[in-house]
Design a protein that fits this description.
α1 packs across α9, α2 crosses α3 and α10 packs across α11. The strands form five sheets. An eight-stranded mixed β-sheet has the order 1-4-6-5-7-8-11-12, sandwiched between helices. Strands 13-14-15 form a three-stranded antiparallel β-sheet, with no helix packed on it. It is built from 13 helices and 17 strands. By secondary structure, it is an alpha/beta fold. The protein has two domains: 250 residues, 3-Layer(aba) Sandwich (Rossmann fold); 119 residues, 2-Layer Sandwich (GMP Synthetase, Chain A, domain 3).
Length: 409
């Protein structure tokens, strides 16, 4: 998974600062993540949820709204109407770059902005909100009464919210009456996922109820249980991302895979040799070799470990796929090789990371190398690992139905 800068033109002369979280394989689709009122594109929720979605195959662009973070004009006032326009411009910029978004995800006030912006974005096929307020009046409650008085009197004031300074103008207060979030939800006519924690101390659960009741079907509600408003526990971000990915899968554009195919496994057996604790004889047709674990964990070190075998499958499939593709296109690829490493990454879901290092030999130009590298991300074993698989188990001597039958009573 790779992160890359994606800056684009916002309203006026401001350039908005964004990041793309790109899946390692062909994206199932693209999404935009809108951050919360006191956050930015690098907030814990924005980063962890975007990256978890990318690992699930959905590319995500997260960016700073005008007046926030690294956006040009970050000294300027925050404005809900501008946030809505920024989302529209973000979708236009992604579409122009060949990454048309079909999913909007908004956290807190970013969720409210996503609900309003979606109406003007026909390419958006689904919207997911996380801890979003059902009205803008809620945001005014974060301001001290004396700050509101100064804003109404002087036209603007710099206030501290969540220990961060923000410039608030009267136009922001005017937006409270201008935008009806529940009315926008009622006219959304798109699949909607509402996610909220019952014990959220910043935006109460009643806001989720109002949004859900205002929405038309198809709509879904998922409780975030004990999550706090800012997702300080990374496990909550992973849970939210996994839920969004599963829910949004039916609303992603159809996927057309033009992938060179390699043979499927017709039957590979692993049998204990009874030499050492883990040594196995691996056989498939006329081929045989040993599998084992290292001596450091009680094995004999006489063969590849199970994760090394999985890595070998990915490496072999990657090279074969690149070769088939290069030959089909007539590219002068003389030799390809791939090294795959596997590690477990703490606080990442799923926790398995396979890292490929690819070497391409031959007089290839930059475009040919890029195209071969792109097809490597779509090799069948890669797609199997990224998308997941169905694993079935049969026990010799026991009818299949006995294995699959649900328990009764």
């Amino acid at each position: 998974m790779a992160s890359s800068i994606f800056d684009f033109q916002g309203e006026g002369d401001n350039r908005l600062s964004g990041y793309l979280e790109t899946p390692e394989t062909t994206p199932r689709g693209w999404a935009i993540f809108a951050h919360c009122f006191t956050c930015g594109k690098n907030s814990r929720a924005a980063v962890h949820i975007s990256r978890a979605l990318a690992r699930a195959g959905i590319g995500v662009m997260r960016f700073d709204f005008a007046g926030v973070g690294a956006a040009e004009g970050s000294h300027e006032a925050v404005n809900f109407a501008t946030d809505v326009e920024d989302l529209k411009l973000a979708a236009e910029a992604m579409t122009a770059a060949g990454m048309s978004p079909s999913l909007l995800i908004g956290h807190s006030l970013g969720g409210s902005a996503a609900l309003v912006a979606a109406a003007a974005l026909p390419g958006i096929s689904a919207v997911a909100t996380i801890s979003a307020p059902a009205d803008l009046q809620h945001i005014l409650r974060l301001l001290a009464p004396e700050d509101v008085e100064i804003i109404n009197r002087d036209g603007e004031a710099r206030v501290d919210i969540a220990s961060r300074p923000f410039l608030i103008r009267r136009s922001f207060i005017d937006d409270v009456g201008r935008f009806d979030i529940e009315k926008s939800v009622a006219s959304l006519r798109r699949p909607l996922l509402v996610m909220h924690a019952p014990l959220d101390q910043v935006v109460g659960i009643e806001h989720a109820s109002r949004i859900f009741l205002a929405a038309t079907h198809p709509k879904s509600f998922v409780s975030l249980d004990t999550a706090d408003h800012l997702f300080t526990d990374v496990a909550d971000s992973h849970y939210a991302a996994a839920t969004i990915a599963a829910w949004a899968s039916r609303y992603m554009p159809p996927r057309a895979d033009d992938i060179p195919q390699v043979e499927s496994a017709k039957g590979v057996s692993a049998t204990e040799t009874l030499a050492g604790k883990f040594q196995l004889a691996i056989r498939s047709g006329e081929h045989s070799f040993l599998a084992d674990e290292p001596a450091s964990v009680g094995g004999l070190g006489s063969g590849l470990s199970p994760y090394e075998l999985v890595s070998a499958g990915l490496a072999a499939c990657t090279v074969m796929t690149m070769r088939l593709y290069a030959d089909r296109k007539g590219f002068p690829l003389e030799r390809a090789s791939t090294t795959v490493e596997h590690v477990k990454v703490a606080d990442m879901m799923p926790s398995d990371r396979f890292t490929r290092t690819i070497v391409l030999e031959g007089p290839l130009d930059d475009e040919q190398r890029a195209r071969i590298l792109a097809i490597a991300d779509r090799c069948p074993v890669d797609l199997t690992l990224v998308r997941g698989s169905d694993v079935q188990t049969r026990l010799v001597g026991m009818p299949d139905a006995a294995v699959d039958a649900p328990e009764l009573g």
